[in-house]
Amino acid sequence: MSRRRKKRPLTMPARVGQLPIVAVLGRPNVGKSTLFNRLTDRRNAIVEDTPGVTRDRLYLDTDIGDKRFTLVDMGGFEASPDGAVEEGVNRQCLIGLEQAELVLFVVDGRTPPTNGDHDTVKLLRQSGRPCILVINKVDGPSQEAAAGEVFSLGLEPWVMVSALHGRGFGDLEDLIYERLPETPADVDDEEEHVCRVAIIGRPNAGKSSLVNRLLGEDRLLTLAEPGTTRDAVDSYFSREGRQYVLVDTAGIRRKRSVPLRGAEKLAVVSAIRAIERCHVAVLLTDARAGVAEQDAKVLGLATERNRAVVIGLNKWDLMKRDAEAQAEVIERTKDTFTFAPWARWVKVSALTGAGLSQLLDQIDRAFVEFCKRVPTGELNRLFDDIIEHHPPPLRKGRPVKLYYATQASVRPPTFIVQTSYPEALHFSYKRYVQNQIRKVFGFEGTAIRLIFRQRKRRE
């Protein structure tokens, strides 16, 4: 019996501890991320026909029928890791296995089990975790017989599926459903008060280290080499009653440096999607290396999408005895980000934790401004004053009229101004109006949208 799943809002975090965790485990390139995407009905995990694309633990809430759970995708588990990346991925897998109440052990049905598969089975038995053997890449009945060697692993129950085409997923969902506890009635479906924070920046700026420091655990894989993070990874976090979803993203290099195809291209696309879904974007820069033009381009991705913004000058601890270098970085920061003078910046150290309290304070303030609504009466009184002291330009010798202004929405704050000829308003005048809105009502730390719309003429 197949149970239809209901799509969950993208703003929902994975709340480790509230919902049962189902972990997807297996060696590299057996289709774990494809399985994860199909079970969650999303494309959150990067899928590439190359081993080792997934490295961190990627959590997402989903459901089967009336039962909800948190599914976690993990990197490929190597029984005999041969490098720092593989060892780091294995540590992430062991943490995910320890948290899990149910494990989906994924193998490739087209090939005989490897020594690594047998070693992983031993690990699963030692853990005592309930397990479902998922025999993947079985695209049709003709391939079922060829998958018979997998049974030498001695695991039950088992199910043959094709994560790519969806074959066998009704049976897989039934097996998962039978092993899940009932969902508590008090689990909240919508959390409007949760602030979604995307950590963005160039490679090796310390984004994953910052998230790990805020969480107080090695939630994300961190290495000295750039490009360690691939997926945009969500982490649930709370502080003094405030709740956040921290989204670590891949480093964004110059466009000409990113291959047209491959894991890095997909990682950049995932990072941009994370910006579009967030409330506050934290641009983390390497203060020691200096703020660069690429930092401005990354910040531009957030301002163009009208997000709230905070700038973190990371690795400040490495400059604490060099006053001249500090002054140079501050001046360079002001010059580089002149297009977003309303953005606040904070000196931080992801390594020592210095400045993180101030960073979170600025995130809170930016989120409040991102959600702020201005009364219509006060807004129109401001526009009366604007028209009196700085009227709109002329169009063919006749003045352009501003009739009425209203705030249409929040997140981001969006204002609509009814006017006679919107095309006649120069960019400089629109910027002046926006600056006056900021001067009177604040909105420090967030972009705002200002839309000039032509009033419909009466027949």
Please name the defining characteristics of this protein:
single chain; 459 residues; alpha/beta; 6-stranded mixed β-sheet; 11 helices
SSE blueprint and pairings:
Layout: E1 21-25, H1 32-40, E2 58-64, E3 67-73, H2 84-99, E4 102-108, H3 115-127, E5 131-136, E6 158-160, H4 169-178, E7 195-200, H5 207-215, E8 233-239, E9 242-248, H6 263-277, E10 280-286, H7 293-304, E11 308-314, H8 323-336, E12 344-347, H9 356-370, H10 376-389, E13 394-395, E14 398-399, E15 402-409, E16 414-419, H11 427-441, E17 449-454
Parallel strand pairs: 1-3, 1-4, 4-5, 5-6, 7-9, 7-10, 10-11, 11-12, 16-17
Antiparallel strand pairs: 2-3, 8-9, 13-14, 15-16
Helix pairs in contact: 10-11
Q: What does this molecule look like?
A:
Helices cover 31% and strands 21% of the residues. By secondary structure, it is α/β, with parallel strands linked by helices. The strands form four sheets. A six-stranded mixed beta sheet has the order 2-3-1-4-5-6, sandwiched between helices. Helix 10 (376-389) crosses helix 11. It starts with 20 loop residues before the first strand and ends in a 5-residue tail after the last strand. The model is unreliable at 4-17, 45-55 and 220-231 (pLDDT under 50).
